[in-house]
Amino acid sequence: MEKNQNNLPEGRSIDLRQQLTVLGFTLFVIYLVAIFFVNVPRWGIWWTDFLAFHSAGEIVRQGEADQLYDFKVQKEYQTHLAEKSRQVPSSLDPAISEASFVLRYLNSPLLAVMMVPFSLVSLEISWRVWAICNFILLAGMCWIWWKYLMTSWSFKEKLAAISGVLCFAPIFPVFNSGQLTFLIGILLTGCLLAWRAQKPIWAGLFLSLLVIKPQLGLYLGIAVLFGGYWKILLSTCGWSLGIFLSTSLLIGVKPWFDWVQIMREVGTKQGIEGVPTHQLMNLRALLLAFFPEAPESWIGSLTFFGFAGGAVLVAGIWVYFAWRNTALHSLKEEAPSNSPPQNKLLLDNLLAFTLFLMLPLSPHLLPHSAFVAVLPSLLFYRVVRDFSRWRVFYGWFLVLSIIGFLIGYFPIPPEEIFGNFVNSLEPLVLFAHAGISLVWLRSTSKVEQTFVPSTKPTSSIETA
Questions:
Q1: Predicted local distance difference test score (pLDDT) of residue 129
Q2: What's the pLDDT score for residue 4?
Q3: Is 391 inside any structural domain?
Q4: FRET pair for 30, CA 20 to 30 Å: which of 62, 216, 313, 314?
């Protein structure tokens, strides 16, 4: 009988990637069943983050935009919405249902304006429409990644990547809480693709729209500035000014100043009154896991210095690589049948490192926001894909990362058994990805003259 390259009889090769792909899609179906057939029927939707978005749109629609960030006003609107939909807060933990409870709206005024059409209908209908929008955004993201980031990948590679995206644990709270992370993912993807394609007007538009979640766009803004991408910088400034002026014509300038003030204050608060630190997946969570008795002021200061230090590191990395490699500013279009040109691989590596570092150092990284980690993962896999050993290593590291997030989010095993280790898994995984992409940066910058794409046939075990 003829042997294949794995020294197994033909037709009996071990393709672990196929099993993992099926498992990934299966987990996604389990997530959806748990959300739409268990959680929502049992608890309702009044407690989800979408209530904050809906109430913000309602406040703007009722002409009270000047009080958009007045938490008493937010509470009044949310209480009215909850009672109107007959979803009484007492159905949950009484501690959560206290009179002081309010799902604080902390996003920018732009999102509140965008939510006005959703406030025209009841909370239940609006939530269902938003859920449908989330499905469309997720499908659109996967299609864009399939078409533009996986151009030379095999069909099985593409399918495995999509299954990994769909079973990534942070996708659960996006649907479960009615969050807007898929919209953020579309904006980040559009920004990076336009950046790589030398379309600064579009890159600047997508980057400016990230004002709805500014902490997830700040490091990219630093990369644009210190990388010398002046056209993207000008485009971003122009679009940002247009967004500010257009929204100010509708709701005035006060909400913008109130929002800036809220952003400065909210990081010092915890629990229902501020940021729920027990749910974070960033440096703050890591510090709290290992130093639970440390004063909150120390934790806050270390988190701030970590964020600032990361910004300095990103600026330095982009100055070093972008200014000494001018080819990054004149990227060539890649042919679908060939490996990407090396200057584009270097840019992918820089962008992946920037996004990986941004996530755990972000002041407020909740589980749903961690979903955007799939984008730098795809970018970095493109970088190492033509190096068989690194491809296998990073492929398996991605599998272990998905498992780590599953353990950390649900958690499995119980926190009572493994203690602080469970709470620190996600930020440790994100820091590890940032470290790996940083180590590879030097290799990517040196490989341009000596790089030879791998022509060896890929075994099913290698790409598992």
A1: 94
A2: 45
A3: yes
A4: 216
Q: Flag whether 341 is in a domain.
A: yes
Stronger pLDDT, 145 or 464, i.e. the higher one: 145
63 dihedral zone (left: phi>0; alpha: psi -120 to 50; beta): left
Q: Are 84 and 123 in contact (CB under 8 A)?
A: yes
Q: What's the pLDDT tens digit per position in 28-60?
A: 999 999 999 988 888 777 677 898 999 999 999
Q: How many domains does the chain have?
A: 1
**How many whole angstroms separate alpha carbon 107 and alpha carbon 138?**
21
Residue 213 to residues 188, 218, 363, Cα–Cα distance (Å): 11, 9, 12
- Say if residues 423 and 408 touch (Cβ distance below 8 Å): yes
| pLDDT score for 326 | 61
**Beta-sheet strands, E only, within 10-155:** none
Quick one: tokens of 318? 């982009």
Exposure on the CB side of residue 321, measured as CA atoms within 13 A = 28
For residue 270, the SS3 value is strand
Burial 380-419 (b: 16+ CB within 10 A, else e): bbbbbbbbeebbbebbebbbebbebbbbbbebeeeeeeee
The average confidence (pLDDT) of the chain is 82
CA-based nearest residue to 75, from 58, 61, 92, 91: 58
Q: Which of 131-145, 170-184, 232-246, 292-306 has the lowest mean pLDDT?
A: 292-306
- How far does the chain reach from its first CA to its final CA, in angstroms? 25
Question: What is d(CA 114, CA 31) in angstroms, rounded to the nearest whole number?
Answer: 28
**Residue closest to 459 by CA, chosen among 1, 64, 14, 135:** 14
**Taking the model in full, what pTM does it have?**
0.86
Q: Count the neighbouring beta carbons within 10 Å of the beta carbon of residue 265.
A: 9
Question: If you average pLDDT over residues 73-88, what whole number do you get?
Answer: 73
- Within a domain: residue 173? yes
When pLDDT is averaged across residues 167-174 and rounded to a whole number, the result is 94
Q: What share of the chain is helix, strand, coil (3-state, %, to 5)?
A: 70, 0, 30
- What's the rounded mean pLDDT across residues 426-430? 92
Q: Which residue has better confidence, 286 or 86?
A: 286
Domain that holds residue 228: 16-42+137-446
Is 112 inside a domain boundary?
no
Do the Cβ atoms of 188 and 218 come closer than 8 Å?
Answer: no
